[in-house]
Amino acid sequence: MSGIIEQERFTCAIGAMQTVVAIRKAVPILHSGPGCGTMVSGFFEHSTGYAGGSTAPCTNASEKEVVFGGEAKLKTVIEGTYKVIDSDLQVVLSGCTSEIVGDDISQVVAEFQAEGKPIVHVETAGFKSNNYVSHSNVVNAIVDQYVEVYAEDGTTKIDNLVNVFASIPYQDQFWKGNLRELKRILEGIGLRVNILFGPESGGVAEWRTMPNARFNILVSPWFGLDIVRHLEGKYGQPFLQFPYIPIGGNETSRFLRAVAAFAGLDPKPVEDFIGGEEAGFYEEIQSLATFLLEFRYGLPNHLHMILDSSYVLGISKFLLNEVGIVPKEQFIVDGVPEAFQQAIRAELAASSAKREIPVSFDPDAGKAQEAIRAITHPGRGLLIGSGWDKQLAEEKGFDFLSASNPSPYRLVLTTGYLGYQGGLRLIEDIYFRVLGTYS
Amino acid sequence: MSTVNLRAPEVQVREIRLGSITGFEGTAAGLVGCARRGTLADSSRSFSQCLGCSTSNAACTLVLIQDAAVISHGPVGCSACFHGYEFVYRVNGVNRGLEKTTQRKIFSTNLEEKDMVYGGNQKLAESIREVYARTKARVIFVITTCSSGIIGDDVENVTNEAEEELGIPVVAVFCEGFKSKIWTSGFDAGYHGIARKLIKPPVKKQDDMVNVVNFWGADIFKDLFGRLGLRPNYLTPFSTLEQIEHSSEAVATIQICATLGSYLGAALEQGYGVPEIKVSAPYGIPQTERWFRELGTMTGREAEVEVLLKEEREAWLPRIGELREKLKGKTAYVTAGASHGHSLIAILRELGLEVRGAAIFHHDPLYDNGSVEADALSNTVRDYGDVPNYNVCNKQEYELVNILSKSKPDILLARHGGMTLWGGKLGIPSLLIGDEHFGMGYKGLVNYGERILDAIENNEFVTNLARHAINPYTKWWLEQNPYTFLGDNTNVRNY
């Protein structure tokens, strides 16, 4: 086992510059080699936001900085950033070059912090971790170095205010839509929500109210856990972890009831909201049932996914129980640390009392493809993966839905798959592809 | 002229090998003059934005070779954008005659913290074995990264051992991002690997075969060369290993963009005796004629070339005249790499547009072949006169925004993703043509002229975008001299 990765579906730690790009008027400043920013924008595409992409400042380490250190250059680039770019928050992300040569980045950043600048530093050398992990490090650095300093009131807890962590911006290409739906449904049951990223958030002003939340919600099997644990220690906020993305009627209602119980909300308005949402959702499913049960020309009956752990769980539960597509072998490629794998297996097994869903954990997606090449099940298959998998789907004669990065064959703006509305959208997307095969 | 040494594992970066620079403000003639006098001096910027990376440019020359596998020896992020080549191969391969497009074999050794401490040699050796077992590739390239370079992995030795063990070429390509501010150094690194390990000495010269060093542009040379009794051997995207091996048997090598193929052309000439056409590529009428005549001389097809030029003139000059009429008085700004950017300037001026300025990513005083005639900028200045506000700027968006917001040309011509955004945000019709062959010859002028007219005419989108665009740049910055941060910080202290 060499540990190689074929067909990568995430990037390295500095990819979490997109976590910064997702905060309104925040600017990432890269203290890294010249190519890191291009690699990140090449991976995610359409991801410039306010000041990412070609706008992001970068020290572009050259041989000189590798030999003599890059602290002086970092200082002038930060000074230039204040002159050239209008921003509410600056986050310095260090890359492999500066961390191997041992620049004292926090010292440089501390000088600006001492001047009262809202600037944060976080170590994101690519060899340290991937962007699933470093997303948490970036958020925690902002909490420690910005929220902690600038929160108007660091102690008072506001009833029903929650901080919510779920989709990693850009790594989950449906993050905007997912966060919008999360905010909508949580407000629907009576909570106030700090969603923190994207257009539904109030930018850094919202971040400054993070200490006032009564508790935190994490929607994820493992990534982001470091954030809610950190906040628990720092601000005494307990957290509820819902271990996968809730999609469709069953799971979204289950999620909301878990949140309501955790928060001790009055059940009546919660059930009223859930009832209304379910009525709308199942009205569509019922109208669709005839098509799903009768369409004589062929629809997919089984499913493979090459996706991250949250989606493999969420989509398996949804498609099996609410659409009738049976999950077969699944391939989880987000580099899940071993400590979390057993719980994910158990959660997947809990999707059905009468069938086993085989699952493997390996970010080396080339291996997942090899495995799928060798598997045959009766009926028409559906493959949900990334752009890397289009050709495999063609070889296998599968229907194919691109639903993760890299995404050269699909443009996603504000579509989301989370929640009641996300479930319906996922159905639309799958059958748009399926029906598109009929000429 | 640089001396090609195919026995060395590594080729030097452009700054050292060619004296290339990434910072200059002045005029095009001024720059060419400095280059000729040997007084070209680089300037650095005290504020900078993200550049490109040598490692992805090296990958560009390698990933698209049929039956090749590429291993990025670094953290997983150092190959994050390579999926784009898989798309290119699938989408463009069919246009270049591939019957079936196979998946690209792209790997990362996924270097982690422990590898930084203990070194990545062992991991790389195991990775090469595994990649071979999995892909049965006919050639494996290992491209280096900042991390593997700084920790000092012995990639040359590991690849040589693997080559012996596996019996296929295993090629180390040295292209660490931090070594060069000119990401096209990565092209040189890729071609050096190809030239030293894949190209074989000629067995039998093929006097109708011409090497074409290009990206993945449309197959226009089959027809053009066919009329001269020649055929193109495209290097290296979509080529087979055999095509590369036998490129030494060609009668000549041509460049589409000397910045791309400079080193491969020189390596083929110095290492294998294939003469390179040392005049800049055929964009604009004078250069098209010079270039085709040189091709005719080198391949013994002078008469055929005159016939071709006559046919082309007859076919396209009337339409070029109409386009000039329609484009009269229009102004343009160019942002692109050298030397394709120089060619774009030629195209614009041939069509009668006024080029108000240009931001070109770097400048090579001369290419590896050492020929002054190959200097596209110098030819452009000679044929059409000087270009004011000529800026050597390696994709520094803040300078571009500053310049564009003041000069407001009728059209922004860009080549390199991301650069049209600000044309659009400022309401300037903006055009990026990906196909590097699109502007060649007489027909190329028609191609570009029509697209430029189309972009200027259909400006509703950019007009509306400008109305709603969010601008992260400060008011202060947009009022400054665009070169405030250029030149060893001296200007900055005075702001």
**Count of separate structural domains of chain B:** 3
Uncertain spans of chain B:
489-495
Based on CA atoms alone, the radius of gyration of chain B comes out at: 23 Å
Largest interface: A-B, 76 and 73 residues
Average the pLDDT over all residues of chain A and give the rounded result.
Answer: 97
Beta-strand proportion of chain A? 15-25%
Quickly name the level 1 CATH class of the largest domain in chain B.
Alpha Beta
Overall spatial form of chain A: globular
Distance between the termini of chain A: 45 Å
Largest sheet of chain B: 6 strands, mixed
Q: Which range best describes the helical content of chain A: under 10%, 10-25%, 25-40%, 40-55%, 55-70% or over 70%?
A: 40-55%
Question: Any idea what the CATH architecture of the largest domain in chain A is?
Answer: 3-Layer(aba) Sandwich
Query: How many alpha or pi helices of chain A?
Result: 17
N to C succession of SSEs of chain A: EHEHHHEHHEHEHEHEHEHHEHEHEHEHEH
Per DSSP E runs of 2 or more residues, the count of β-strands of chain B stands at: 13
Describe the model:
The complex is a heterodimer of chains A (439) and B (495). Chain A contains 17 helices and 13 strands. Chain A is α/β, with parallel strands linked by helices and 439 residues long. Chain A has three domains: 138 residues, Rossmann fold, CATH 3.40.50.1980; 108 residues, Nitrogenase molybdenum iron protein domain (Rossmann fold), CATH 3.40.50; 161 residues, Rossmann fold (3-Layer(aba) Sandwich), CATH 3.40.50. In chain A, the strands form three sheets. Chain A has a five-stranded parallel β-sheet with strand order 11-10-9-12-13, with helices on both faces. Chain A has a four-stranded parallel β-sheet with strand order 6-5-7-8, with helices on both faces. The relative contact order of chain A is 0.12. The mean pLDDT of chain A is 97. With 495 residues, chain B is α/β, with parallel strands linked by helices. Chain B folds into three domains: 266 residues, Rossmann fold; 129 residues, Nitrogenase molybdenum iron protein domain (Rossmann fold, 3-Layer(aba) Sandwich), CATH 3.40.50; 71 residues, Nitrogenase molybdenum iron protein domain (Rossmann fold, 3-Layer(aba) Sandwich), CATH 3.40.50.1980. Chain B has 22 helices and 13 strands. In chain B, helix 10 links the parallel strand 6 and strand 7. Chain B is globular and about 65 Å long. In chain B, 57% of the residues are buried.
